[in-house]
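Sample intake sheet
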Amino acid sequence: MTRRRNLGARVRRWTLWTVVAVLLTAVGLAGAVVLGNSYDLREERITLRAGGRDLDAVLATPEHGEGPFGLVVFVHGDGPVDATHDGFYRPLWETFARAGYASLSWSKPGVGGSAGDWLDQSMDDRAAETADAVAWARTRPGIDAGRIGLWGASQAGWVLPKAAARTPGVRFVIAVSPAVNWLRQGRWNTLAELRDRGAPPEEAAAALARREAGLRVLRARGTYAQYRAAVPDDGAMTAARWRFVSRNWTSDATGDLRALAARRVPVLLVLAGHDLNVDVRETEAVYRRELPPATLRVAHYPEAAHGLTHPWVDRDELRTLATALLAPRSLFAPGFLPDQRTYVAEFASRRT
């Protein structure tokens, strides 16, 4: 009986210490998550009137001081993106805050508390929305109206040059992984992803055939039903997405880049070495051809993926999740965040 009682006591002690260890681990992880996602920022939820609708927005300002701060206006890429991009933007906001800049970002129409539907927008609509945001910011106390720039990634490549060319006083543009031509970008992306996973030639040929079938419907201004009849296996193309594509498939940034060149707005073009979405060689060639050398700076990150993240971000979901929770700043390619800060700091004393 004594041995049995001793064994029971040991089991109870082991169980107790196991529970304690689990709790301490949980508390430690929770603390690490809180610490990793704490930023030197003040965030203000606001309602931004832009594009004829009310948009749920965030104005992030440096933690200390009353300004006037410069401002970086964020322009999203594709998809239903909220104001923080699920927290992805916060390391950038902090980076800009350390250079004395606020950041303004809003949830796309139909996302969160924003009215409307982003799938009903053209690139012209998005540019007008961005111009309205800049106009609003110029009236905001604590914002330096002479130091407002635009930052955008991916699909924003069709919005940034258009908005900056039409909006007087934009001081700079940061274009991250932008494409130039909608159709060429789509074709390149299709083939790049197939190459990346080692797809056989016949699969690539079939993908291009489906793509051409869809383009024939677009060129004929066809309906969604006609598209599904032509490409029956594309279940990802919804009716709403078809409307969006129908509005935007002719997008090409070349003309807007020429208009931007006439304004001589400084541009930082940021390109990733492992970009499967955008043909960075074409993008760089067009930007260098259309923009004056004195206004264009090109930054290459050879190890980065499309979002200027480490390539493994797109390949290992568990590792990505753990990094996003514990060390979100580490999602970005080495040097990217410091280089962003250095670039905007160059405009700290320039006012128009």
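Comment: The longest strand covers residues 143-153. The chain is about 45% helix and 20% strand.
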